[in-house]
Amino acid sequence: xxxxxxxxxxxxxxxxxxxxxxxxxxxxxxxxxxxxxxxxxxxxxxxxxxxxxxxxxxxxxxxxxxxxxxxxxxxxxxxxxxxxxxxxxxxxxxxxxxxxxxxxxxxxxxxxxxxxxxxxxxxxxxxxxxxxxxxxxxxxxxxxxxxxxxxxxxxxxxxxxxxxxxxxxxxxxxxxxxxxxxxxxxxxxxxxxxxxxxxxxxxxxxxxxxxxxxxxxxxxxxxxxxxxxxxxxxxxxxxxxxxxxxxxxxxxxxxxxxxxxx
Length: 262
Description:
By secondary structure, the chain is an alpha/beta fold. Helices cover 48% and strands 14% of the residues. It has a single domain, classed as NAD(P)-binding Rossmann-like Domain (Rossmann fold). Strand 4 (88-91), helix 4 (106-132) and strand 5 form a beta-alpha-beta unit.
């Protein structure tokens, strides 16, 4: 059980909860005795997750983060189940789309921005009153290692994740006056549905670009609630890479250009 469970039962609300990082996080926090709120577009997968959590241990609701009315209704239902409090918002829903920026259909670009950035903003706005009602609450968003240095052929995805990182930094200052903390996760290569078997086979077995299971991110989400860092890297070696990129962006750019041309 959570060390703070003697005061009240902690609660977490997770978007993108039906698979990958969101699902692993739901299971991790459930094992610690938290009340789990799960939002996702995939209603069928949510049904299975709700059964897994068991009666009285969670609430699952089908909702698309780009549908603000459905999102607001889902957050309100969660608030009713938790007495109007939310200890941890895990703003995790996101999609990717690989391809050249020059040729990617504009509709696909809009979808990426709507889900990854505007959907994240809408989620935070909807959940903020519940966060304000819970002492020590945390607004935690999933960014990406692509927010350290933009990834070619993932330009729009990278842009949304850079934006989420910048948003988190600003909200960490703004929300302090409201008694709410803000932080983000910057995962590297995680074994989710976004990673194909061919891509996985080509990746290194060691180092910061090794493939990690989604449970590794769930553990860091747990650490983030109990810690005070602004940016949480998965794996932690990415923190050093972030420092390197900040100091030598042109070298990183040139190395990546050489790698693509070579």
